[in-house]
Amino acid sequence: MVTKTATTTDEINVFIADPLSEDGIFPLRQETELNLNVIVDTGLTPQQLISKLADVHVLLVRSQTKVTREIIEAAKSLKLIGRAGVGVDNIDLAAATEHGIIVVNAPDGNTNSAAEHTIAMMTSLARHIPQAYNSLKNGIWDRKSYVGVELKNKTLGVLGFGRIGTEVAYRAKGQRMNVIAYDPFLTEERAKELGVTKGTVDEVVQAADFISVHTPLLPETRNLLNKEKFAIMKDGVRIINCARGGIINEDDLYDAIVEGKVAGAALDVFVEEPATDHKLLNLPQVIATPHLGASTIEAQESVAVDVSNDIIKFFKTGTVTNPVNMPSIPKELLAQVEPFFELAEKLGSFLSQVTTEAIKEVNISYAGEVANYDVRPLTSNGLKGLLQKNHGDHVNDVNARYLSERIGIKINEHKTTTAKGFTNLITVEVKTEHEVHSVAGTLLNGLGARIVKVENYVVDVIPEGRLLYIKNTDKPGAIGRVATKLAEKNINIATMQVGRDQIGGTAVMMLTIDNDVTEFDLQYVAQLENIDEVKAITL
């Protein structure tokens, strides 16, 4: 990212619209190299805020202020929006990006508080502490009704092993618990290094005595714990959610508790908040807090400090540590590489949907004319497509490389002027513990993006819409049988591309289809003779 940095004589107006601790904004107040003018004015209506932003360069908020498109468009001098916290739902990212405004947040500032709250909730759940306190407060000395269980030697299942999940595991091991964890990017080496067992979602929920969720809320993780998962859990399992409402199906959790399958639940988050009249709160086995995971003095100070330091770094160096959106890049660079942005992202997205193990290494090769450009933005787009399936929309062009490296993915870029028959060719390869997958694409003059190679098979596929990726043995009738099976499910084929390595060897089919397919549909096709693998891809 390139931007004009401020000189010591330029006044930089920093407007703080939500209450922040003085300790949190102390870095701004003590900065001497920059001419920062810190303005604190909280509790404003949108129109009042708009009236004060004409000459503001930085807007700093927490969650109360909604930074809408109207506000962004009114702030003509705005260069940066800081969110003292993790989520940026209250900021119109599209509008900010459109106007070349950087948005930064503080993704690490509440990690410790969230992990501590999770352990506190788990311990309170195990020992019935809130229920026993309420009983005593009501004048009842009842020891028999609140016999708990120890954490020692119990198994904690952690679903989502990012920053917070990892910190929870550290603390659980301090309680001498066994930990089994699932994360799409958790490798065996990383699990061994942290002293935990790696498992699938099903393996985690089957083995655990306590289950704590720490995934982002994505289409893939919504209702991650549902009646099917409760059915395969141990009897008497206990559930903790201090992450996001919606990861656990609340109706199914209620039924599982009433039926005795789940011994209890500790909830800090709900699908709809405030949740003061939720039916789960009527169950004596449930304890709850009103979304307090990050509500500590230290966390609120830490996120403000992180954002304050990013503001200073931005005006001194033109870079930031925790960007949320894509910053402006020089027009001459943008003109060169922008046509390839979508292609690179879709190549990464394709591989994210065919790879089943944690990715250890990504190799991106640029061949032909594109190799003469600064391809770093293209690599970021490819990584963005690769990560978004499991990490959500907060992964973007700016932070994709940082997030990849943080979870242990090695990234390699290669350039060559030889494109083997193409003017430009981008090839993305991923390596896991047991798999290697690759896909290549190009831009055809007047025809747009094309996937031209999958693994070692030559194809010609438009990377958009619903695709079926099928591996099969090159035997007569394979294509016809697939088409027949899909017809039986009323799934219409729009286009079909096939490729093979040799006669009678392995082959692939790439089908563009008009309908959504279910897992049952995929299994239905996979049962055919000579069909080795069937995967649904959405681009």
TrEMBL record:
Pathway involvement of the protein, from the record: Amino-acid biosynthesis; L-serine biosynthesis; L-serine from 3-phospho-D-glycerate: step 1/3
Boundaries of every ACT domain copy: 467-539
PROSITE patterns the UniProt entry points to: ACT, D_2_HYDROXYACID_DH_1, D_2_HYDROXYACID_DH_2, D_2_HYDROXYACID_DH_3
Chemical reaction(s) catalysed: (2R)-3-phosphoglycerate + NAD(+) = 3-phosphooxypyruvate + NADH + H(+); (R)-2-hydroxyglutarate + NAD(+) = 2-oxoglutarate + NADH + H(+)
Gene3D superfamilies xrefs: 3.30.70.260, D-3-phosphoglycerate dehydrogenase, domain 3, NAD(P)-binding Rossmann-like Domain
Single GO MF annotation: phosphoglycerate dehydrogenase activity
Domain of life: Bacteria
InterPro entries according to UniProt: ACT-like_dom_sf, ACT_dom, ASB_dom_sf, D-isomer_2_OHA_DH_cat_dom, D-isomer_DH_CS, D-isomer_DH_CS1, D-isomer_DH_NAD-bd, NAD(P)-bd_dom_sf
Signal peptide feature range: none
Entry keywords, A to Z: Amino-acid biosynthesis, NAD, Oxidoreductase, Serine biosynthesis
Catalytic activity, EC: 1.1.1.95
Transmembrane segments: none
Pfam families with a match to the protein in the record: 2-Hacid_dh (PF00389), 2-Hacid_dh_C (PF02826), ACT (PF01842), PGDH_inter (PF19304)
Function: Catalyzes the reversible oxidation of 3-phospho-D-glycerate to 3-phosphonooxypyruvate, the first step of the phosphorylated L-serine biosynthesis pathway. Also catalyzes the reversible oxidation of 2-hydroxyglutarate to 2-oxoglutarate.
Similarity comment: Belongs to the D-isomer specific 2-hydroxyacid dehydrogenase family.
Name of the protein in question: D-3-phosphoglycerate dehydrogenase
